[in-house]
Every structure is written in C-alpha cells, then in structure tokens.
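User: Could you check the structure of this?
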Amino acid sequence: MPCLIGITGTIGSGKSAVGKILTSLGVPVIDTDRIVHELLSLPNPVRTAVVERFGSEIIRQDAGAAIDREKLGKLVFRDHFAKRELEAIVHPAVLEECKRRIDQYLTEPVVALLVPLLFEAGIESEYDQIWTVVASEETLHQRLRLRDNLNDCELASRLAAQLPQEEKASRADHIIDNSGSLDATRQQVEILLAKITTKK
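Assistant: Sure, the predicted structure tokens are below.
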C-alpha cells in the first residue's frame, strides 16, 4: 500500500501549487475539488440530490446544464445548515471515488490527495500523513482577491466557513509555508517527500 498524504489548508493557501510540485516529482495526486466538479457537472445521483435540495436555479443555462458552483457557493457560505446538508450529500461520494482512484496506484510508494475540508469532514484517519499548507494572512487575502475577484465581505465569509489555518496547522503532521517563492515551497515538499521514500 502507498503512503497516503492528505494535503489541506485554508482557501488560497496554495494546495494546488503543492499538488503540481508533487506531480512534477512523479507522485500521483488526487484532487478532491476536481472530483466535486465532476460530480456536480455530470449526470449522477449526487448532482440530482444537490439540485433537488437547492433548486433548479443553481443549474447553468449553457450546454451540459452543470451546476453553477458559484451560485451554489453563495448559498451555502452564508447558511451553515445548508453547507452541512451539501457536505452530507457530497462528501461520502467523494470519499468513495478517492478510494477507487487510490486502488489504481497500489504499487506507488506515495499517493497525495488534495482535501481542502479534511479536518472539517473529520477524515484524518483516512491518511498516513497530513500536510497543512499555510500562507501569511496578507498573502491569502491578496491571492483570493486576484484569483476569485472577492470583495472584503465575500472574502471574510469564505475564510470563516473553514477552520482557521492556525488550527489546521496545529493538527497536521507537517506544515508547508507557501508565503514565499515557489522554489522555497518546492524545497519543503522535496524534503518531506524524501523522508517518506527513504523510510520505504
């Protein structure tokens, strides 16, 4: 069995950047955000259940009729109960799909999974190691404004919907500081990965 690394962190911390670094180092990376996107885009029981719960207005009007994640996000980020209902629909299906994909890499020494809500979902036991990606508050805010075009109110709402990064860091096996350059982040990833592969 491979060593399963759960990579988490606050929105905007740089989980995807760490995932790309691991991919470049030959590590299979499973992105749970991408799985959620597929579940909300393609016809399947999860997509049907989400539309039944949140209404047809969340369906995009373009070809394919995928769920508009931006509209859905605005609904759940301001309503804690709605957020919990969405997670109850989506999380079990994501876990099942993760397990299916992990089974494709059983001969690999390491498999990494990008899991933004790892601690919030209470699935720490699914992983052999948990890495939390952190960044300075200034860096987080700057990235979110540029990437997602969020105003201050929306930004605060998104961050409040997740555990503070200090708590995520305190519960992790290892911390990757992604406040600086990509090269600095890569060095941290290489060191942690070398420790795992050396043990194996």
